[in-house]
Amino acid sequence: MHQLRAVTPLSILAKKLDCLAIDCERGNFDVQFRNELETCRNLASGLDPYLEMLSTPEDPCLKRLSVETKKFDWSDSDDPALVRGLEAEMLSGHVEGQFLKMLVEVSGAKKILEVGVFSGYSAVAMAKGLPEDGKIVACELDARAARFAKEQFLKNALDNKVDLRVGPAIKTLRELAEHGMKFDLMFVDADKQNYENYVKLALDENLLSIGGIFVIDNTLLQGEVYLEEGEKSTPGKAISSFNKYLARENRVEQVIIPLRDGVTFAKRTT
Ligand SMILES: C[S@@+](CC[C@H](N)C(=O)[O-])C[C@H]1O[C@@H](n2cnc3c(N)ncnc32)[C@H](O)[C@@H]1O
């Protein structure tokens, strides 16, 4: 099965400290330095397994979805209906999935809008937190990911709860707004350069109700947002600029939670 790369600030830091500790064992460093480095390494590498271990265990159907996502061949092809660069690392996973499910439950959200479905992990996690009459409209551009996710919704008897729309999310969001649709919670987890467009559209066109919640993923973008300008990739620059936009946006109140790759939680106030 595919071995996942480190894609969060903490797991990247843990990996780097691991490499340093191995180098240090070979070099001539004093005991105190080695011990300090070992403590840093343990602090960084121990947190994620600890969160996994003491959070409510992963639902068996999500565990299966995760295994199947890692086994699937997501490599690029020339098919124009497919998005380039999809990889198993995109899956949100156990702790973030549990966070999303519980957020749906405690907020009492009934209508959810998801932007960026991939293999369906977050959609299934959120659907599990919905009441009987709750619904998710889920937007995905990649035809292959949409097929994979659809199968998961069917397998888990959630296809009546998830309305999957295949195509560019901006187009779908405009169509939903034209039909006067309103949502209680919007999960944004797709192309980083469009994050600002998704949030602005949801506010301008009233797709998100007043009091509704935005949950926005990858807002730390592997730590690039707080690193030097020269160390930012194109998505890193997009998220950095998005975070600044959201901090100025006076229609929301927000907090960035350092969960996994950063999750912003923003409530629409006006
Ligand atoms: C990070 S993955 C989503 C992961 C998923 N939410 C989860 O938690 O498992 C991002 C997804 O957004 C999709 N995407 C990228 N650009 C898009 C667009 N313009 N409209 C809709 N989906 C898009 C990609 O194809 C990919 O499947």
Describe the protein's topology:
Elements: H1 9-26, H2 31-54, H3 60-71, H4 94-107, E1 111-115, H5 121-129, E2 135-140, H6 143-155, E3 162-166, H7 169-178, E4 183-188, H8 195-204, E5 208-217, H9 234-248, E6 252-257, E7 263-268
Parallel strand pairs: 1-2, 1-4, 2-3, 4-5
Antiparallel strand pairs: 5-7, 6-7
The chain binds S-adenosylmethionine.
Top keywords for this entry?
270 residues; alpha/beta; Rossmann fold; seven-stranded mixed sheet; 7 strands; 16% strand; globular; binds S-adenosylmethionine
What does this structure look like?
The chain has helices at 9-26, 31-54, 60-71, 94-107, 121-129, 143-155, 169-178, 195-204, 234-248, and strands at residues 111-115, 135-140, 162-166, 183-188, 208-217, 252-257, 263-268. With 270 residues, the protein is α/β, with parallel strands linked by helices. It has two domains: 9-54; 60-268, Rossmann fold, CATH 3.40.50.150. The protein has a seven-stranded mixed beta sheet with strand order 3-2-1-4-5-7-6, sandwiched between helices. It starts with 8 loop residues before the first helix and ends with a strand. The structure holds S-adenosylmethionine (SAM). S-adenosylmethionine is lined by residues 83, 86, 90-92, 116-118, 121-122, 139-142, 145, 168-169, 189-191, 194.
Radius of gyration: 20 Å
Kindly state the number of beta strands.
7
CATH superfamily of the largest domain: Vaccinia Virus protein VP39
> Which fold name is given in CATH as the topology of the largest domain?
Rossmann fold
The end-to-end distance, rounded to whole angstroms, is 47 Å
Bound ligands: S-adenosylmethionine
